[in-house]
Every structure is written in C-alpha cells, then in structure tokens.
Amino acid sequence: MIQAIAFYIFAIVVLVSGAMTIASRNPVHSVLWLILAFFNAAGLMVLVGAEFIAMLLVIVYVGAVAVLFLFVVMMLDIDFAELRAGFVRYFGIGLVLAVALVCEILIAVGAWSAGGVDLARRGAPVDPTIPNIQAIGNLLYTRYLFVFEGAGLVLLVAMIGAIVLTHRQRQGVRPQNIAQQVARRPQDATRNMRPEIGQGVQL
C-alpha cells in the first residue's frame, strides 16, 4: 500500500512538473521544474529496483545537465522573444515530429497491451543473486564495451563541435600569449620598494 501511494505521488509530480517545464514563460523556472521532474523520476526508479538509473538521474541529469542549463539560461544574453518569433517558421517540422512521436507512443501502448515480455528469452540474462549495479557493470564492460566506448566518442565529438561553434573572435580583447607567460621571471612581475614613513607607495 505504501509503495502504491509513493508511486502515485511521484508519478503525479513528474507529470505536473513536466507540464510546467513546457508551460512556464520564465526559462529559469522551466529548468527548476525540470530538476523537480528528474528527482521524482529517480524516486520511481528506486521503487522498481533500478537504483543505478535513479543515481544516474540525480548525479548526471540534476547535478550536471540541469545545472548547466540553468547557468546557460542565467548567464547568456538570449533573446527569447526572437526565438519565439521563429515558431511559425518551424511549425511544419514540429508538427511532423509531433505526429511521429504520437505514432511511437501508440505503437508502444499496443506492444505493451499485447502481453508481457518473456524473461527467459532476453538477450542478456542476469543472475538474480548479484546486485543490480554489478550486473550492469558486468554487461557494460564486457559484452557492450565497444558500444560504451562509441557513446563516449560521440559525446567527445559533440563537445568539440559545441566549442568550435561557440568560439568566436572578440574585438578589443588582448589575446593570451602562453610563451610570454611561461618565460616571465619573478623579478619582471614584482618590484621591491622601500617607501619613506608617511609617503606611501608610488604605483
């Protein structure tokens, strides 16, 4: 009974916070609602025994991705009025994606109502005596090692692409000279002064 109550509480909060993430007019409030959705989704994962996924939701998504979104929204000068003005231009593409998403949801509901999954025919059977995290680690670093490394390479390429796209030459800014900084001596950076009493230091 307690598990059912906790499930409905977490599920309702996830749905409400997800809807508020989209409906909030303030982007900072949207990110905060998204963080709340992640926390409650982690609670749902704990209820079904997937504590590793719950930990990933809290550490990776809440601790890194959502906080990064929050810093980007708060620190960058983004003209949200201009972004909303392009809604009509991309309405057709958005409509196609929405129809595709609805079709995928209908297919998933039909597959779920067709019957349960035969656990004996799974591609990667797991020993029920070992913990959940250990089972994921054994599969991730043995059978799916190359897939895991490939995902890391994809993230690396995405990070490099983001740096290249956002890097731009700024006018009026002194460039950094690494060789000059390395070759600088302590006597070039400091100067010993012996000012007279009551005269102060001349800069």
Short summary:
It is built from 9 helices and no strands. By secondary structure, the chain is mostly helical. Helix 1 (2-23) runs antiparallel to helix 2 and helix 2 packs antiparallel against helix 3.
Give descriptors for this structure.
203 residues; mainly alpha; extended; 0% strand; single chain
- Radius of gyration, taken over Cα atoms and rounded to an integer in Å: 27 Å
The number of helices is 9
Strand content: under 5%
Structural class: mainly alpha
- The SSE string, one letter per element, is HHHHHHHHH
Overall mean pLDDT: 80
Q: Which regions are unreliable across 5 or more consecutive residues at pLDDT < 50?
A: none
The main sheet comes to:
none
Give a verbal description of the structure.
68% of the residues lie in helices and 0% in strands. The termini are far apart. The chain has helices at residues 2-23, 27-47, 51-75, 80-85, 91-113, 132-140, 145-166, 178-183, 186-189. The protein has 3 domains: 1-79, Four Helix Bundle (Hemerythrin (Met), subunit A); 89-118; 129-167. The longest helix has 25 residues, at 51-75. Helix 1 runs antiparallel to helix 2 (27-47) and helix 2 (27-47) runs antiparallel to helix 3 (51-75). The mean pLDDT is 80. The protein contains 9 helices and no strands. With 203 residues, it is an all-alpha fold. Its main location: membrane. Belongs to the complex I subunit 6 family.
